[in-house]
Design goal:
This protein is α+β, with helices and mostly antiparallel strands. It is about 40% helix and about 20% strand. It contains 3 helices and 5 strands, in the order ααβββαββ. A hairpin with a 2-residue loop joins strand 4 and strand 5. Helix 1 runs antiparallel to helix 2. The longest helix is centred in the first third of the chain and has 31 residues.
């Protein structure tokens, strides 16, 4: 993953551990103080929310522990590679799209951040400005012309 992706996951974990967990732990304690726990919906709801938050924090800790931070390529910056932002023209729909090739845990398809191991990204890797990438996907073949390639500074 990129340094930015790692930092984003680390910040989310810190926020969960230091802000949200404390709030939920206080909510559990307040609900527990109300007495009979067997029929205390507030207590059970707070405990369930806290358990889900712990699960999310564990997933983030695992991703961070296994993360390998990859730097942008030192060589040619005129080919699509990991970390690149690529502006393409969909030749079938005549629309421009922008994708950033990221590592596992950083993908955000709504924001155009696609997993570098995805079929779409693999079809773009190695292409240069002006090249046409024909990418086989379950729905058929997608055709993109590479318009621009950018790397973070």
């Amino acid at each position: 993953m990129t340094r930015a992706g790692y930092d984003k996951l680390k910040a989310e974990l810190d926020r969960l551990e230091h802000d949200e967990m404390r709030v939920l732990e206080e909510r559990v304690a307040r609900a527990r103080a109300e007495g009979d726990l067997s029929e205390n919906a507030e207590y059970h709801g707070a405990r369930e929310s806290l358990a889900m938050l712990h699960a999310r924090a564990n997933v983030l800790r695992d991703k961070l522990a296994r993360a390998v931070i990859v730097q942008s390529p030192q060589g040619s910056k005129d080919e699509v590679a990991f970390g690149a932002t690529v502006v393409v023209k969909d030749l079938d729909l005549d629309e421009q799209e922008e994708f950033t090739l990221v590592g596992a845990g950083e993908e955000d398809y709504a924001a155009g951040k696609i997993l570098v191991t995805s079929p779409l990204a693999q079809g773009l890797v190695g292409k240069k400005v002006g090249d046409v990438a024909e990418i086989r996907v379950p729905m058929g073949i997608m055709r993109y012309e590479i318009l621009e390639i950018r790397f973070p500074e």
